[in-house]
Write a structure and sequence with these properties.
The N and C termini lie far apart (46 Å). This protein has six helices and seven strands; from the N terminus they run βαβαβαβαβαββα. The chain is of the alpha/beta class and 171 residues long.
Length: 171
Amino acid sequence: MNTPPPTPPISCIAIDDEPMALLVIEQFCHRLGGLALTTYSEPHVGLKAICREHPRLVFLDIQMNSLSGLDIARNALPADTCFIFTTAHARYALEGFNLDAVDFLHKPFSYERFAMAVSRALRRIGAAAPRPATGTIVVKQDYTNITLNITPDYPHRSLGQLRPHPPDRRG
């Protein structure tokens, strides 16, 4: 079976002055897969990294101690960089969207909401959404173990034929 070459991860930067917020973004990116994330708790250092690395996607807190995420988005992001605001301050949502933000995640946000925002950003930059890894599962049928290949393209073809085994009714 020919498998397509792996897609290089999408370069991402997260800037937030709250370490716990960065940890959540880092965990969600890892869970989602396909994203190479670098985090910065100091906005000025993160801004220099954006200028140096030209990431495809930036997660920005809005209200930080030394520099506003709105100012970064307004003045410093490369034209082909998508950004998602991650903030506890909903009052900035309209201004964020007026700056062409891909999305606005109001803290605390769920993994599902995060994944939806990243998917929207990937569509905008023309990148494929992260795909689940390939693998196998082993199914017992009578006295035989059957190995089924699971592919990211058609997992339902393998799994669609499985029936759950009835529970053991021994009492």
